[in-house]
Amino acid sequence: MSDILYEGKSKIIYRGPNNESLIIRYKDTATAFNGEKKAELSGKGKLNAAISSLIYGYLAEHGVETHLIEVIDDATALVKKAEIVMIEVIVRNVAAGSFSKKYGVPEGTALKNTVIEFSLKSDELGDPMINESQITAIGLATEEELKEMTRQAFRINELLCALFAKTGIRLIDFKLEFGRYDGKLILCDEISPDSCRLWDIDTDKKLDKDRFRRDLGDVLDSYQDVLRRLQNVR
C-alpha cells in the first residue's frame, strides 16, 4: 500500500497510483458519540465496503456520479481525488436520533416531507449544525453548490428509498458527503449502515450503527443482513 494521507475513525486514505486518485481502506473500528465510544468489530470494514460498493454501483446506473472508480479488494477501493466540501448533508424521512431529541418528535414518526440538514464536517467541533447563510458566509460552499447538493440529495434519497424498499428495509435517514471534481460536485465517502439508519419494514428492527450506539448487540449480523438483502435484489 502507498503512503497514508489521512486516517479517520472508519477509513484510511492512501495516495493513489496517480494525482487524480486515492485509495480508501475500510477499517473494522466502530465509533460513536464523536469517538467517545469505540470498539474493533472484525469484518465490519469488509461489510461496509461491500454495501457501499453495491449502493454506489446502483446510483451510478441511475445517473449519480460518485467518486468510486473500482473495487481493489474486499476492504479497499480506488476513488477519484475530489476536494471534499466540508459539509455533511443529512437526509431525514422518519424522525429518529438527534432529530427526535431536539424537536420532541417520537422516534419512528414518518415526516410529512423529506428534511435536509447541513452540519459542519469537523470532529474537533462535534460536527455542529450549520445553515445555508452560515455556510456561504464562511466560504464553505456557494449558493449554487448548496442548491446542487440539495438537488442530488433529494434524488439519491428517492433512489435509495426505492432500492431499500425492495429489500424490506425502511430508510430512516442518512448522511452524504460531496466533493469537487472536474468542475462539478460528485458523491464521495460511503453509504453504509455506518452512515444510514435502516429499519426492517415489518419489525422496525434496527440494522445499522444504532445497534452499536445503543448496545443492542448483533452489530455484524445486522450489517451482514443488509448486505445479503442488497445482493438478492441487485
TrEMBL record:
Keywords from the named record: ATP-binding, Ligase, Nucleotide-binding, Purine biosynthesis
The SAICAR synthetase/ADE2 N-terminal domain, residue ranges: 5-229
Stored InterPro entries: SAICAR_synt/ADE2_N, SAICAR_synt_PurC, SAICAR_synth, SAICAR_synthetase, SAICAR_synthetase_CS
Top-rank taxon, per record: Bacteria
Keyword ATP-binding: yes
Sequence similarity: Belongs to the SAICAR synthetase family.
Pathway entry: Purine metabolism; IMP biosynthesis via de novo pathway; 5-amino-1-(5-phospho-D-ribosyl)imidazole-4-carboxamide from 5-amino-1-(5-phospho-D-ribosyl)imidazole-4-carboxylate: step 1/2
Keyword Glycoprotein: no
Protein's recorded name: Phosphoribosylaminoimidazole-succinocarboxamide synthase
SUPFAM superfamilies, per the entry: SAICAR synthase-like
One Pfam assignment: SAICAR_synt
E.C. numbers: 6.3.2.6
CDD domains per the UniProt record, alphabetical: SAICAR_synt_PurC (cd01415)
PANTHER family attached to this UniProt entry: MULTIFUNCTIONAL PROTEIN ADE2 (PTHR43599), SI:DKEY-6E2.2 (PTHR43599:SF3)
Catalytic activity: 5-amino-1-(5-phospho-D-ribosyl)imidazole-4-carboxylate + L-aspartate + ATP = (2S)-2-[5-amino-1-(5-phospho-beta-D-ribosyl)imidazole-4-carboxamido]succinate + ADP + phosphate + 2 H(+)
Single annotated GO MF: phosphoribosylaminoimidazolesuccinocarboxamide synthase activity
